[in-house]
Amino acid sequence: MRVSSGVSGLHSLIGGGLPAGRLYVVSGPPGSGKTTLSTQFLVEGARQGESCLFVSMHESRADIIEDMSAYEFGFDRAIETDRLTFVDVFSSDGKRLFRPPGKHRDSSGLINRLTGFIDANDVERVVLDSTMLLKHFLSDTDSNTIQFLTALKRTDATTLLISEMTDPSAYADEQYLSHGVIFLHNFLEDSGMQRGIQVLKMRGAAIDTDIYEISFEADGITVGTKRGVR
Ligand SMILES: Nc1ncnc2c1ncn2[C@@H]1O[C@H](COP(=O)(O)OP(=O)(O)OP(=O)(O)O)[C@@H](O)[C@H]1O
Ligand SMILES: [Mg+2]
């Protein structure tokens, strides 16, 4: 089964919607559109009556409503419904869900609370903004990150994990562990900033891995033509 991403033009790069129930990484530099793309994905789910969860460690509910209100795809309306749950990990709700592990920094409590929430609420779409969240709450061992991502892969939800790529010269664990990786690019050109999208991998789907131009319109990110082709 495929789920609609809510991003116009993306489906032609992956032969349809996103394969459902899988874990995807959305990577890119600052301002490249990671949060925009992810909120479009959740609003699309909410519109279809699915239960959606946005977990943020960057922004409060008020901040994200304000930022995403610059678009007209209806994030502000969706978040007022019970279909889209927003959790800021530093809020009191967030603290209940993400109580930092004790001094042993055992990640299993955190994993169980999050996957328990997803299962109990039949959450179909999840966005985690961002991997800095993992680094903050999990002790910095590979096995904790692998356990966390493996648990997310086992839920029935289709999940987007936003990854900052702090080291652009190296791929991160989550990019190998995930079922798919979507890259957003910023290119500084004579004509100004050009932005692009590239589907780097998508297990089980024939994909076009070329870079396509994207534009930020009132209805969010729209995929345009192949970069360099006029
Ligand atoms: N209505 C709009 N039309 C055009 N561009 C917009 C509109 N609203 C916001 N933008 C731009 O979209 C850009 C992408 O923002 P977004 O928050 O999705 O990026 P990000 O990759 O999540 O960034 P960060 O790494 O800082 O979290 C912003 O820099 C903003 O200027
Ligand atoms: Mg962001």
Q: How would you portray this structure in words?
A:
The structure is a single chain. The chain is an alpha/beta fold and 230 residues long. It has helices spanning 11-14, 34-47, 61-68, 75-78, 92-98, 108-120, 131-137, 142-154, 173-177; strands spanning 2-3, 18-19, 23-27, 51-56, 84-88, 123-129, 158-163, 180-189, 192-202, 212-217, 220-226. The protein has a single domain (2-193, 202-210), classed as P-loop containing nucleotide triphosphate hydrolases (Rossmann fold), CATH 3.40.50. It is built from 9 helices and 11 strands. The strands form 2 sheets. Strands 5-4-6-7-3-8-9-10-11 form a 9-stranded mixed β-sheet, sandwiched between helices. A two-stranded antiparallel sheet has the order 1-2. The longest helix has 14 residues, at 34-47. It is globular and about 50 Å long. The N and C termini lie far apart (34 Å). Bound molecules: adenosine-5'-triphosphate and magnesium ion.
